[in-house]
Amino acid sequence: MNEKKNSSEDKNKEDIKISIVIPAHNEEKYIGKCLESISKASKLFNNQVEIIVVLNRCTDRTEEIAKSYKCIIIKNNDKNLSKIRNAGVEIARGEIIVTIDADTQMNEHVLSKVEEYLITGKYIGGGVTGKFERMSLGIFVSTLLLIGPLFFKYGAISVGIFWCYKKDFKSIKGFNEDMLMAEDADFAKRLKEWGKKKGKKYGTIQNGMITSSRKFDIHGDWVLLKRPKMILAYLKGTDQKYADEAYYENQDR
Description:
Layout: H1 2-15, E1 18-24, H2 31-41, E2 49-55, H3 62-68, E3 72-75, H4 81-90, E4 96-99, E5 104-106, H5 110-119, E6 123-132, H6 137-154, E7 162-165, H7 166-171, H8 183-197, E8 201-211, H9 214-219, H10 223-226, H11 228-236, H12 240-247
Parallel strand pairs: 1-2, 1-4, 2-3, 6-8
Antiparallel strand pairs: 4-7, 5-8, 6-7
């Protein structure tokens, strides 16, 4: 009887193709929509997708909601998104890694596109473009104020949802744990450079996500125009005070 159980577990392990990692700090308002979007995008991958939710100091219903979607749950208490994401990837069983934030919804074609791009052998991985759940002139201007400097530092890259083979994630040592902000842009740049060495391109899946506007809801749509020091903090990437404010304090993250 034990042999049967172990055999079944081994088979399930082998069947996992895609591991989706979600960092989550008090995400009860958002994570349900995120997980629902993943469920829809996973329909063509019969039991081949696992979802790993990395609970970060949660005091709300995030864990309860994640369990209702049969997610794998682990806990990490660092105020560091790189460490949180890397902890999730560490236990991932899939050969393909996808990362998404808990306040983001992926569109139904994303996982199919990820597989399509990777199996060609032409892409090292990549990112996704999308839109905010609401837009205003202030959000547009604030976004441009951040994108411009990041472009000059990191080049033309798409961020949002990341995707690549786990072996390549490991080859570039995942997300840089010394960075507290703009760790996503840094990851994209290093993945792109790694791909170039292997003769592969960095891919972009168009119109692949909808992300919340909660930072603007909390701090105001014109936040980066009013607080240029925040832009400098993103460029520096290691300022704990601004990282806490952006990701962990006075908001549901």
